[in-house]
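Field reference: sequence -> structure
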Amino acid sequence: MRALPTLTAIVVVLAASTSSQAMPEACTESYEQAQVLRKEGKLLRAREQLRVCLHPSCPSLMVADCTRWEDEVLSSLPSVVPVAVDEAGVNLIDVQVSLDGAPLVNAPAGQAIELDAGMHHFAFERADLMKAETDVLVALGQKNRPVQVTLRKRLVASEAVVPAASPAASPTASPPRTTR
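Structure field:
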């Protein structure tokens, strides 16, 4: 006598059939999106889409195209290495770095960060030092480009330069003219 299928087994079978139907849709969508994003120069997002259409359940023709495109994207995707040094040129590792206004989290010191080509704004901060910012044009295919700034000491009130007083009016200066 055969046992009746359990509710769990039925749910697993239904989920598998649903995901196998959804996967070709995801393959097609990611395949199309990857092409658009590549042409727009949004290589980071294109790479994400290509990883979807590389799935073994996608049609082999799509997988072949996505594999080739992924190689092209990876070779074109630029990267930078943010570096902060102090005034003596010593590397600083405990620096907060932001890229285009967003903090770089999970970016270990000295490691390359992949980003899309174009102009990018970097800000480097450490509590005891002055903030440094720089704009960098990152070229397509450029790898491991150093983006280095020098973080200088903060001036304390006693070190601040006091501006010189303006010189007194010269005694030989002519008085202003008045007209009647």
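Note: The beta strands are 79-85, 91-92, 96-99, 102-103, 113-114, 118-126, 129-138, 145-150.
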